[in-house]
Fold:
Amino acid sequence: MSWLDRLRGQPSPRETAKQRLQVILVHDRSDISPGLLEVIKDEIIAVLSRHVPIIAEEVRVTVTQDARECRLVADIPLGNRHGRP
Amino acid sequence: MSAQVITVTSGKGGVGKTTVTANLGMALALAGKKVVCIDADIGLRNLDVVLGLENRIVYDIVHVVEGRCRTRQALIRDKRAPNLWLMPAAQSRDKSAVKPEDMVRICEELRPEFDYILIDSAAGIEEGFRTALAPADLVLLVTNPEVAAVRDADRVIGLVEAMGKPTPKLIVNRLKLDMVRRGDMLDTSDVLEILAIELLGVIPEDEQVVVATNRGTPVVLEERSPAGQAFRAIARRLMGENVPLFLSEDGQGVWGWLRRLVRSGGGR
Structure:
């Protein structure tokens, strides 16, 4: 990595490798591809919308990991009955 | 005497499984332990070449499995280290020639006579992998500090655990200290954080490994080689000695440099 890249604030190849690996392994370990995650998210939105108002565009569904344990985390902001708060 | 069976595996090919097996076998033998190295890479044997014993093969593991020779007859004794023996793989067959139960049976037969049985696994996660894993008491996972090798290593950890074997211990091979220092390569600490398993040792990149392989004399026989020193340290750790991960405490030479890098969390 050149000093010029460093000056520009570019992540080092080492950091890039580490970040890519972390993302790859979350999907490998959980056997949930990024595409499948999108499908799951859309279905969660569809089901919940029938019961409570939610802000669909702010829903985040991710796979996280702690050591070797994976968990599916959904962050679903609720709207009020008259639309967005 | 009942040998500990240690399987050396990786997932990805070309990360140095055979080099690790040959050098740890030689290092343990030089430390006075009775060691047999088994080449489980049927059809693509190489452990014989790395150990420089390729000209002395008469029988191999498939002959043993098929009952065409006795187990002892397939063992080649190393003249440089009389405590070291090799059971070569067959070159003209494929992985299906040795089943997991065959490997277990061979190891059971050898256990009373040796201190360590080292099995050099085939690359991949198919039949040959399961055969090499079947008798293992301890699994050593070899990886290089690069994305593809670490990804495959992670997959192997899951498969080993699913087979009911203990969590593998990690050997990071071919660490290029100058590249780590420049921020161009994953450091051991990155690999450890990602894989979250116990680290057994780090082998620095060392041109002498290529020279040693060309000659058929494992690099542990080279007193001054950094890789050779690293292999000797791992062997001592396997023998239960409390050897620090990085040899030099005084900060001299390549090991001191490695220690400082790890302490500073990456050397930038």
Q: What stands out?
A: Chain B has eleven helices and eight strands. Residues 247-252 of chain B have pLDDT under 50 and may be disordered. The two ends of chain B are 49 Å apart (CA to CA). Residues 53 and 218 of chain B are 11 Å apart (CA to CA).
